Task: inverse folding
């Protein structure tokens, strides 16, 4: 393990958990890489007590920008409390902005419209602009369709106008993206990826889970359901507090492998499961970067699987070098924030080679849990009761074995649990739509392994 940091930024550490021992001829090495960021003035969104501006952390007000995108399509008026709660939630988020943060509010329908400040740029948060922004929210009204790609492109344009370290979006929708082709949303997400991160929320039950989770996944943010619009203000406040706590943006997980080795897959496994394998960008000979987004005070786990050349007993090698990289300013040198090593040692000791590392075993189970929930719900919707029962039963078994109590509770609203240990369940005859959507939306949330 190693860690590196500037004095005015969070400290990063990298820990590698693995069983490095392989039987003769084995070629697959698995490791859990835990990345932890601490210090640097992160406060979870509270005002920063900075006495010397030159030593302000990266996430101080002047180096962050946020755009809130509010669905104002016609369906937001059914019932009228939905848009009223959306206004109140946006106002609560604005109140949470730290002085100096650049911000804007966008109304989204079949087109995107600037609500505040409305001049093609971003406002700077202070008591006056926060009051003006909340006053502008009174002009929000429902009407028109839904074309989320246009909202994201306007947010990208606004955020790109600011010279800041942290760029973040918050997106709220209550319906399906029916007024643009699926390819248009995909193109917008590809255009915005790497420019800003974005949290996405679906309010009510008339939106498409895969659309909302896909937005959050592509833009390295969180996704969730707010089934009751009354909960929007509290959720928006939490999202904005989390955004205000970010200190470092665009951190990459760089994996270097020696000649003859290759990365089979990379996925984030805590706090949520997120596939990163296909997001690799080349970073020199035999090295690739995987995006991780913005960081504050937090810890995340990644599962790295490396294929190495087969070897004989007694041989050992470095299977991969894991580094955290902060991109360089124009013309500068990238900064290494932390580093860890993945090793491979071939032995004929059967006890050593058959021992499964607890971290690897735990997160392999958590990734399977997310997959079987999603598959089970799809089978249930398709009318395959036997298939759905088998998959959701396996999900109950995995949630029980890993101590994932939150997911187990959500599953219990979709199936009747006969025996959690064996995964014996019965599908409920009637399931509330909000309960099913909550389970699907939160299926990728994991629990940390107990070390």
Result:
């Amino acid at each position: 393990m190693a860690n590196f940091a500037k004095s005015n930024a969070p400290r990063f550490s990298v820990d590698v958990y693995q069983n490095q021992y392989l039987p003769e001829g084995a070629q697959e090495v698995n490791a859990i890489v835990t990345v932890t960021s601490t210090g640097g003035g992160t406060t979870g969104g509270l005002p920063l007590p900075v006495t010397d501006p030159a030593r302000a952390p990266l996430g101080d007000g002047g180096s962050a920008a946020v755009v809130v995108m509010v669905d104002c399509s016609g369906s937001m008026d059914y019932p009228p409390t939905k848009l009223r709660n959306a206004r109140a939630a946006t106002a609560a988020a604005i109140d949470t902005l730290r002085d100096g943060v650049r911000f804007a509010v966008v109304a989204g329908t079949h087109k995107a419209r600037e609500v505040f400040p409305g001049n093609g740029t971003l406002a700077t948060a202070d008591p006056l602009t926060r009051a003006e922004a909340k006053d502008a929210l009174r002009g929000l009204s429902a009407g028109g369709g839904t074309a989320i790609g246009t909202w994201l492109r306007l947010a990208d344009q606004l955020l790109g106008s600011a010279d800041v370290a942290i760029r973040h979006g918050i997106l709220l929708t209550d319906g399906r993206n029916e007024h643009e082709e699926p390819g248009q949303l995909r193109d917008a997400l590809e255009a915005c990826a790497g420019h800003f991160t974005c949290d996405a929320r679906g309010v009510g039950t008339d939106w498409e889970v895969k659309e909302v989770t896909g937005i959050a996944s592509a833009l390295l943010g969180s996704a969730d359901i707010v089934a009751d619009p009354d909960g929007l203000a509290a959720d928006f406040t939490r999202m904005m507090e989390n955004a205000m706590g970010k200190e470092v943006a665009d951190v990459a997980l760089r994996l270097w492998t020696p000649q003859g080795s290759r990365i089979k897959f990379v996925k984030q496994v805590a706090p949520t499961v997120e596939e990163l394998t296909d997001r690799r960008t080349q970073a020199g000979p035999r090295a690739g970067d995987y995006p991780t987004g913005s960081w504050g005070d937090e810890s995340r786990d990644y599962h790295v699987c490396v294929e190495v050349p087969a070897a004989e007993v007694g041989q050992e090698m470095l299977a991969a070098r894991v580094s955290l990289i902060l991109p360089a300013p124009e013309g500068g040198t990238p900064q290494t924030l932390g580093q860890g090593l993945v090793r491979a040692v071939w032995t004929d000791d059967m006890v050593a080679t058959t021992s499964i590392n607890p971290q690897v075993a735990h997160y392999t189970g958590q990734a399977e849990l997310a997959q079987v929930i999603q598959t089970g719900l799809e089978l249930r919707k398709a009318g395959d009761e036997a298939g759905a029962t088998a998959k959701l039963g396996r999900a109950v078994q995995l949630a029980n074995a890993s101590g994932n109590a939150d997911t187990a509770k959500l599953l219990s609203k979709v199936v009747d649990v006969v025996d959690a240990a064996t995964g014996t369940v019965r599908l409920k005859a009637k399931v509330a739509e909000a309960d099913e959507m909550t389970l699907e939306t939160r299926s990728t949330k994991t629990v940390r392994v107990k070390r």
